[in-house]
Amino acid sequence: MIRLKRYKKKTKTIMQNAIVHFCRLSELAGAKLTEGNPNIADLSDKNRPTNLAENFSELYDNEWTDALEELLDQGKKSEEEGIKVLLDILKVLLLKFFR
Q1: Which residues contact residue 78 at a Cβ distance below 8 angstroms, ignoring those fewer than 6 apart?
Q2: Spatial CB neighbours of 20, under 8 Å, sequence gap ≥ 6
Q3: For the stretch 50-79, what's the b/e string if a residue is b when 16 or more beta carbons lie within 10 angstroms of its beta carbon?
Q4: Average pLDDT in the 67-74 region?
Q5: What is the pLDDT of residues 13-63, one digit of tens each?
Q6: What is the DSSP letter of 62?
Q7: CA distance 89 to 70
Q8: Does the reported pTM lie above 0.70?
């Protein structure tokens, strides 16, 4: 009976150590796989392509369409003229931003 308890305790200790080593090995393998590999996306990166696409889509859906509707509702601009005005504004902002 005492031997059985000793073996159970040893088995439990061995299993706990194996789990710890497996987790460490898995972490190292994951780090090695993603390090310098452009094909693996860093999900914490705010500027990864899918996030940028989503941001531009939201910008178009919300701000651009609202601004264009406002220009058209004033009745002074056609849709094509309104788009040109908004494009000119974006160009000016980009030029100021990248200087």
Answers
A1: 72
A2: none
A3: eeeeeeeeeeeeeeeeeebeebeeeeebee
A4: 88
A5: 888 888 888 888 888 887 777 777 776 766 777 888 888 899 889 988 888
A6: I
A7: 15
A8: no
Nearest to 60 by CA among 90, 88, 81: 90
DSSP 8-class letter at 86: H
Structure tokens at 1: 């009976």
* Residue 92 binned pLDDT confidence (cut-offs 50, 70, 90): very high
Spatial distance between the Cα atoms of 2 and 56, rounded to a whole number of angstroms = 69
Distances (CA, A) of 19 to 22, 25, 26, 84: 5, 10, 10, 62
Q: Where are the domains of the chain?
A: 1-39, 46-99
Token digits of residue 86: 């908004």
Query: Tokens 């264009």 sit at which residue?
Result: 68
The pLDDT of residue 27 is 84
